[in-house]
Design brief:
mainly alpha, 4 helices
């Protein structure tokens, strides 16, 4: 039950960040590309620890981080 509640809270947090991003809260254009949004939790999958970053960011900001980790930009 704990992990179900935790997972739901993280989903809601991610949804809130997505809405803020859509409203322009994190900037637009080049300013937005300079920001990386990510949600990390102890329960995150080892197979895809950057899943929320892949879902929440435009390709330009995401690619900078993915280069550092040398991982694929495939959607989560």
């Amino acid at each position: 039950m704990y992990w179900e509640v935790t997972r739901r809270r993280l989903e809601l947090l991610e949804e809130g960040l997505r809405k803020l991003d859509q409203s322009g809260y994190f900037g637009e254009g080049a300013a937005r590309d300079a920001v990386l949004i990510n949600v990390v939790s102890p329960g995150d999958s080892i197979d895809d620890p950057l899943g929320s970053a892949k879902r929440l960011n435009p390709p330009a900001s995401l690619s900078k981080m993915l280069e550092l980790y040398d991982v694929s930009a495939e959607p989560a």
